[in-house]
Structures are given as structure tokens and as C-alpha cells.
Specification:
Elements lengths: L8 E2 L5 E2 L2 H6 L3 H10 L1 H8 L3 H8 L8 H8 L12 H14 L6 H4 L5 E2 L2 H9 L4 E4 L3 E3 L8 E4 L4 E3 L8 H4 L2 E3 L2 E2 L1 H10 L32 H19 L10 H10 L1 H12 L32 H10 L9 H13 L3 H17 L4 H17 L4 H14 L4 H14 L7 E2 L2 H6 L1 H6 L3 E2 L9 H8 L7
Parallel strand pairs: 3-4, 4-6, 5-7, 6-8, 7-9, 10-11
Antiparallel strand pairs: 1-2
Length: 471
């Protein structure tokens, strides 16, 4: 006979009980009712060789008026009228548990199962119960704007429908959203309110950069927590000053000469060198069933390929493998299809969420995260169209991908070195040192040797040789 699989019963406050004594000491009528409905109570009792109690439990009349009192009698615990539990509520909890298992196995959501709405009726019930934190797990949820003081948190990135013809001041209503997306109509209202970039921008950010102010209405900004929103804005202020020195000024430069450089392959040679230094890490990740399970072109979630200039397209062609001559045709055609799909904002939102989830859940995603940010900034350095919007979006993604401001600044130092800017550049973060090792060596960027104790010994010798000014 096979070994029995024993499991604990979880009582209130997350306390796990494994024997009858522990169950009595931490007895919760509400939880016992749930396990009774679920069938786990009888199984748990039999696994503990408490067959008499298991028989008594299995013989209970579930519709009986004295059900709660009889349960307390079986376990010889005091029956307290004020702690009356509801069988209907236990059955509702079981229903929600089964639904949640279809979406996730994360324990943090099972711990708040009573606060999760799976449909509109669930949402209204929770609002009637005066819940102030409500989790949304489903497709679409119209939220009542009249109900103030509510924090909505998405479980599966659901769509929140906002019935308004103008931008809503959610702060004034004390309403907040995390890990959700707005419906297409309301998102368009937000997008239309975003100020258009002037041809020759004279705006200045708080830091003094001509990049202007951080754009808080990017299509992924609402997915950020309030803390990450503040962090993205702070990151923007730091990076925009550094970007100002490396961007091409298309209007002031000599267009004809630049196109000749591009056509001659000089620019592509520079791009090829960096691409090879980064071990040809392609931004073509397969994110679950997104794009039919085929590989994607990840930079398309930030840039519209058709709106890029020749340099921006050259970068995207290389790192997203959009060159038909250098790719398998079937893979290539699906990546091109993904680029086209990303022109639709709703699809782009879906793609962005899939990318962030996949990179954050993967075992070794750090290199791709950093390369994604690096190449996004490199495109921005050669094509400043809608620069405030694009840099804000890049900073939003940096926060969603858990990339620190220090790593962002190190990436910017590498870009500044690539453009042969003057400065004492010193890389301080471990992952940037590790993954951009060859680029750092090529452009003579200094490394903070005081922080190298954390790095593998095999790398120390290489970095020890990196010193002095760039060639």
C-alpha cells in the first residue's frame, strides 16, 4: 500500500495544524466549514487515524439547523453564538478557490480569496460588504466611480471599464489601480490628452534637460504601483540629462551626409560590433501563446517601426532579427506580423504584460532585461521623435522589470562612451559589468574595482586590464 500523503489544515492567521490537538487550539468554525464542504476535513481526519471523528463528520446533515453546534460538539470545542459561521459562505469560498486555480497557483491570492471578484456580481457584493481592497480576476470589470476609497488590484491583468467622457481624477476619489488595463475608449481619452511634442522642443524638465517633463500617461504607466510610478519619474529625471548629450539632432545635422553613412554600411558596422560584443542576444523572446507561440520583436512594444528613421530601423532590424536575409523565413514572417499587431494599442498592452511577466518569472532573465533597455535607449539616441514619450515609457518598463536606477545610469555611461563623450565613466553595478563586458572593454570604460569582490574570479582578470582613457 502506498504511503499516505498528509497535509495540514490552515486555520486563521495562516496557522497550519497537523494533529487534533493543534486543530482544537486554533479552531476556526469558518475554516472547518470550508474544509467540510471541500471534502478535505474527512480526508485529513482519516489520514490522522481519527476515523470515529471522520465518520461523525461524514454523517452530518449539511442542511441541518444545528450544523455549526454539532461540528463543535464533534471536536469538543465551545460553541460561541457570536462566531456563527455560514455554510453558504464556505461554499462560496470553495467556488472561488476552484476558479482561482484556473488562473494562478500563487499563494498570495489564495490568502485573500474572499476579496477576489471573478465577475461583476462578485464585485458588487464586495462593494456592498465595504471592502476597500478588491482583487479583480476575469476579463472586464466596469467600476463604479461613485464608490470612493477603493484599491483595485488585478490578478490576471483584467480590463477595467471607466464610464467617463473625460479624464477622471482618481486621486480625488481615493481610487487606485494596480496590474490592470483601462478599456480602449478611456485609454484613448488619456492618450489624446498627452501633449504633442513640438518640432523644436523648448520644454525643460525639472532637471534642466530639454527632454521636457516625464509623461505619466504611457500605456503601461497605470500598471505600476504608486511607488514605482514615483521611481519611474525619478529615473526619467536622471536619464534625460544624460540622453541630451548623446541624441542626434536630426534638424541641425547634415541629413545627406548621414544617409550616405547609413547607405555605405559604416553605421551598420558600428552596430554590428556592439551586437557581437553583446553575444548577439536577440530581443525576440517567445512569451507563452503571445503571437501564436512564435518569437516576437520586443522593441515593437516601445517603437512603431514605420515611424522610425533609417538609424532606428537599422537597430531594430539587427537586434529583433527583422532582416529577411539573415533569418528563417517562417520565424521572420511571424516577427513582422508581431510588429504590425503592436500598432494596435490593446494588443501592445497585452504584449507588454506578457513580456514583463515572462522576463520577471524566468530563471535567468537579467541579461535580456538589460539588453532590452540598452537597445531601447540606443534607438532613442539616433531617433528623437516623441522623445519624452519614449523615454518615459522606457523608464516605466525599467521599473516593471525591476531594473535599478544604478543599472540605468551604468547603461547610460556605456552609451555616452560609445558616442565618445567626455567624462570619467565608471561602471558600478555587477550585472552591467558582467553582461556588457566586451562593450566596456571596446570603449575603455572604467570599472569600479572596489565592487569586483562580488564577481566571479574568471572575470576579474579581464576587468583588471581595463583602465585609462578611451581610445
Amino acid at each position: 500500500m502506498g504511503k499516505k500523503i498528509r497535509f495540514p489544515l490552515e486555520m486563521k492567521d495562516g496557522i497550519e495544524v497537523r494533529d487534533l490537538e493543534g486543530l482544537k487550539e486554533n479552531f476556526s468554525l469558518e475554516r472547518i466549514l470550508f474544509y467540510l464542504v471541500d471534502g478535505k476535513l474527512e480526508l485529513w481526519l482519516r489520514n490522522c487515524y481519527l476515523d470515529d471523528l471522520a465518520d461523525a463528520v461524514s454523517g452530518l446533515d449539511m442542511k441541518g439547523a444545528e450544523l455549526n453546534r454539532k461540528i463543535c460538539d464533534i471536536f469538543e470545542v465551545e460553541y460561541l453564538q457570536e462566531e456563527e459561521a455560514n455554510l453558504e459562505k464556505a461554499m462560496e469560498r470553495k467556488r472561488k478557490m476552484e476558479l482561482l486555480e484556473e488562473f494562478t497557483d500563487e499563494k498570495k491570492y489564495f490568502d485573500v480569496i474572499d476579496q477576489i471578484a471573478f465577475d461583476q456580481d462578485d464585485l458588487y457584493d464586495l462593494l456592498d460588504e465595504e471592502e476597500t481592497v478588491i482583487y479583480l480576476c476575469g476579463d472586464r470589470f466596469p467600476v463604479p466611480l461613485s464608490k470612493k476609497g477603493i484599491r483595485y488590484i488585478g490578478v490576471n491583468d483584467p480590463i477595467v471599464v471607466v464610464s467617463s467622457k473625460e479624464k477622471v481624477d482618481f486621486d480625488a476619489r481615493d481610487i487606485s489601480f494596480e496590474s490592470v488595463q483601462f478599456d480602449e475608449k478611456y485609454q484613448k481619452i488619456l492618450d489624446d490628452l498627452e501633449p504633442k511634442r513640438e518640432t523644436q522642443s523648448t520644454k525643460r524638465s525639472a532637471s534642466g534637460s530639454k527632454y521636457g517633463s516625464y509623461c505619466s500617461n504611457s500605456y503601461v504607466n497605470f500598471m505600476l504601483s504608486p511607488e514605482d510610478k514615483a521611481g519611474a519619474k525619478s529615473c526619467y529625471e536622471k536619464i534625460c540629462v544624460l540622453m541630451e548629450g548623446v541624441e542626434y539632432d536630426i534638424d541641425a545635422d547634415i541629413r545627406e551626409l548621414r544617409e550616405k553613412l547609413l547607405d555605405s554600411g559604416i553605421a551598420r558596422g558600428w552596430l554590428r560590433d556592439i551586437w557581437e560584443d553583446l553575444d548577439k542576444v536577440a530581443l525576440t523572446r517567445c512569451c507563452g501563446q503571445l503571437n501564436g507561440g512564435w518569437y516576437t520583436a520586443l522593441l515593437a512594444i516601445i517603437y512603431d517601426y514605420d515611424k522610425l528613421n533609417g538609424y532606428g530601423k537599422a537597430v531594430m532590424d539587427r537586434v529583433c532579427e527583422l532582416d529577411e536575409n539573415e533569418s528563417d523565413y517562417e520565424d521572420f514572417s511571424h516577427r513582422v506580423e508581431f510588429v504590425e499587431k503592436c500598432k494596435d494599442m490593446e494588443y501592445r498592452m497585452k504584449a507588454a504584460k506578457a513580456l514583463v511577466t515572462d522576463l520577471n518569472d524566468s530563471a535567468y532573465p537579467d541579461r535580456e532585461k538589460l539588453c532590452f533597455i540598452f537597445w531601447s535607449l540606443m534607438i532613442l539616441s539616433v531617433d528623437d521623435t516623441d522623445k519624452e514619450e519614449h523615454l518615459s515609457l522606457i523608464c516605466d518598463f525599467a521599473k516593471m522589470l525591476k531594473i535599478s536606477d544604478e543599472e540605468m545610469l551604468d547603461i547610460m555611461q556605456i552609451i555616452q562612451a560609445i558616442y565618445h563623450m567626455e567624462g570619467d565613466f565608471t561602471i558600478k553595478t555587477r550585472d552591467v559589468k558582467t553582461y556588457f563586458e566586451k562593450v566596456i572593454i571596446r570603449y575603455g570604460v572604467k570599472v569600479n574595482t572596489g565592487a569586483l569582490d562580488e564577481m566571479p574570479q574568471s572575470i576579474l582578470g579581464i576587468f583588471g586590464a581595463v583602465a585609462g582613457p578611451r581610445s
